[in-house]
C-alpha cells in the first residue's frame, strides 16, 4: 500500500484496510485496521509587513504574506488595537478578514 505525498500542509488523514472474502480460511476477529496518515509538510505561516511610520492624513497600507502551501483554505483576521493613538479620533478602527486561498 503506497501512501502518496500530497504537497502542502493538511490535516492528518485516515484510511481503513479491511479483509474480505477469504478462500480456504475464515476471517479472524481482527478483520480491519485503521491507519492514520500523518502530514509531513510544514504548517503555512502568515505574516504582516508594512511601513512602520506614516504621516497624518494619509492611508497606511500593509501586506499580508503567506509562506508554505496548504491543501486547505487559509484566512487570517487583521484588526487594529489602540496604542497611544486612539480610534476614531486618530485613525479609523479596522477589522479585516483576509482570505489567502489554498495552495
Ligand atoms: Ca494526504
Ligand atoms: Ca501534505
Structure description:
The protein is mainly beta. It has a domain at about 45-55 and about 60-100. About 0% of the residues lie in helices and about 35% in strands. The chain is built from no helices and 6 strands. It has strands at about 15-20, 30-35, 45-50, 60-65, 75-80, 95-100. The strands form 3 sheets. The protein has a two-stranded antiparallel ribbon with strand order 1-2. A two-stranded antiparallel sheet has the order 3-4. A two-stranded antiparallel sheet has the order 5-6. The structure holds calcium ion (CA) (2 copies).
Our estimate of the beta-strand percent is 25-35%
Small molecules bound = calcium ion
Structural class: mainly beta
Are there runs of 5+ residues with pLDDT below 50, and where? none
Order of helices and strands: EEEEEE
Identify the overall geometry.
Answer: rod-shaped
Instruction: Characterize the biggest β-sheet.
Output: 2 strands, antiparallel
Number of helices: 0
User: What is the CA-based Rg, rounded?
Assistant: 25 Å
Distance between the termini: 27 Å
Side-by-side strand order of the widest sheet: 1-2
Question: What average pLDDT do the residues reach?
Answer: 92
Number of separate strands: 6
**Helicity range:** under 10%
Short description, anyone?
The chain is mostly beta strands and about 100 residues long. It has no helices and six strands.
Keywords:
single chain, about 100 residues, mainly beta, two-stranded antiparallel ribbon, two-stranded antiparallel sheet, binds calcium ion
